[in-house]
Design goal:
417 residues
């Protein structure tokens, strides 16, 4: 099959400078443009993959403690009919686990140290069906038995209070008792029976787990304040929330995991969008370097253009030759950037530790950042738009120089040849 001469000639012009060194400067500018496109595309892929990795890592750690959906009473009291609510939520085909819970805020004191905490009363036998924290800390959670008033503390909370398993702490409930001397807060001494570590500082520093029966007695509740659910697909939580709102009986509030952390996820999306725009400008600068490359190439090839025109080449064919020349640079640069970016993104867990060891530094100190390793999660939804935008920018950069080439007058070009 015969290759169109526009394609063959455009490819020949792309590599002519390297082969003959007659137009070394043009070839150098072309190589710089190609390298710039490759580095810009690679940077976009690496940065967005790392941001996706951070988001996934934080989300997974958060969901090890937080349920996909919570159903609770609007007044903060006990559910009016726990059995009916459990039956109705389990009837939804998307729900794979449900467990009752008690949620309340309190103060935890030891000596002069006092911390505000979130007390979560759970059923140790059912908690594993909705979160991973029970299974990951099974030995500690199994110590939570009715009437024992044991408590499992987050590791950072225990460190702040200076307690270890076996120590006694005082739980101060917000609603007190009315006496002739005024309102006296209700105090209950509980035993630290274990610690848990979720990897999410917000929960490790504030969460206290108790048996729901003990929590009900401390906070004077008639039963669990809500039901926590686990779904087949966590991304379906908003849709399932709407379905449950239509099917559940009674006046209940329903909240999914995206609503509990809406601000954080919105901030990550805005940051990711801004990084995409900023790094795309790098690709744009490299792509538009092709303009200067092609303008110089057109000026150098004026005699060739005139000869082709006298042999019958149309202006559209001349334009196609130089479009091919510029597009080749864009295609090669984009493909090289894709390969480099994916290579780094898929091996960043090896590359970053090697750089840290070589330089003797730590990019993510454990005592400052939520996670201590550099995560990466390349996604097709990011990579495909990056490649398309890079190719479109490179193509757009070829249009003006190619149009100028098609406008060359053969008689003027050959006057001094």
């Amino acid at each position: 099959m015969q290759i169109p001469y526009e394609l063959a000639l455009g490819w020949r012009y792309t590599r002519a400078g390297r082969a003959t060194r007659r137009n070394g400067f043009i070839s150098f500018i072309s190589g710089v443009s190609m390298l710039g496109i490759a580095l810009g595309v690679a940077a976009l892929i690496i940065v967005l993959s790392v941001m996706n990795g951070f988001q996934k890592e934080v989300r997974d750690r958060m969901l090890s403690v937080v349920a996909h959906i919570e159903v609770f009473s609007p007044d903060g009291g006990a559910l009016p009919d726990l059995a009916r609510t459990l039956a109705e939520v389990r009837a939804n085909p998307n729900v794979v686990g449900a467990a009752p819970f008690v949620s309340a805020q309190a103060l935890l004191a030891r000596g002069e140290d006092m911390k505000g905490v979130l007390v979560r009363g759970i059923d140790p036998a059912q908690e594993g069906a909705v979160t991973e924290i029970a299974d990951a800390n099974r030995q500690a959670v199994d110590t939570l038995t009715p009437g024992s008033f044991n408590a499992v503390l987050g590791s950072d909370l225990a460190r702040a209070l200076g307690v270890r398993p076996g120590d006694k702490v005082t739980l101060v409930a917000p609603s007190g008792q009315i006496t002739p001397a005024g309102i006296v807060p209700r105090l209950k001494q509980v035993t630290v029976s274990g610690l848990f570590h979720s990897g999410h500082y917000e929960y490790d520093s504030t969460l206290v787990l108790m048996h729901h029966a003990d929590a009900e007695r401390i906070f004077r509740l008639e039963g669990p304040t809500g039901v926590r659910l686990r779904l087949k697909d966590l991304h379906e939580a908003p849709r399932v929330t709407q379905e449950l709102a239509q099917t559940l009986s009674g006046n209940l509030l329903i909240r999914d995991w995206t609503q509990q952390n809406r601000t954080w996820f919105a901030a990550v999306q805005v940051e990711k969008r801004m990084m995409f725009i900023i790094l795309t400008l790098i690709v744009a600068v490299a792509a538009f370097n092709l303009v200067s490359t092609l303008v110089m190439s057109v000026q150098d090839k004026r005699a060739d253009i005139a000869i082709l025109r006298t042999l019958g080449a149309s202006p559209a064919s001349i334009m196609g030759v130089f479009v091919v020349q510029g597009a080749m640079v864009g295609v090669i640069g984009t493909l090289a950037g894709l390969l480099l970016g994916l290579l780094v993104a898929f091996n960043i867990d090896v590359i970053v530790p090697a750089i840290e060891h070589l330089l003797g530094v730590t990019f993510l100190p454990r005592d400052i950042y939520l996670i201590s390793r550099m995560p990466s999660d390349p996604q097709e939804s990011d990579i495909v738009p990056i490649a398309i935008i890079s190719l479109l920018l490179a193509f757009a950069a070829t249009l003006y120089p190619s149009w100028r080439a098609s406008r060359v007058n053969p008689a003027q070009a050959l006057r001094y040849e």
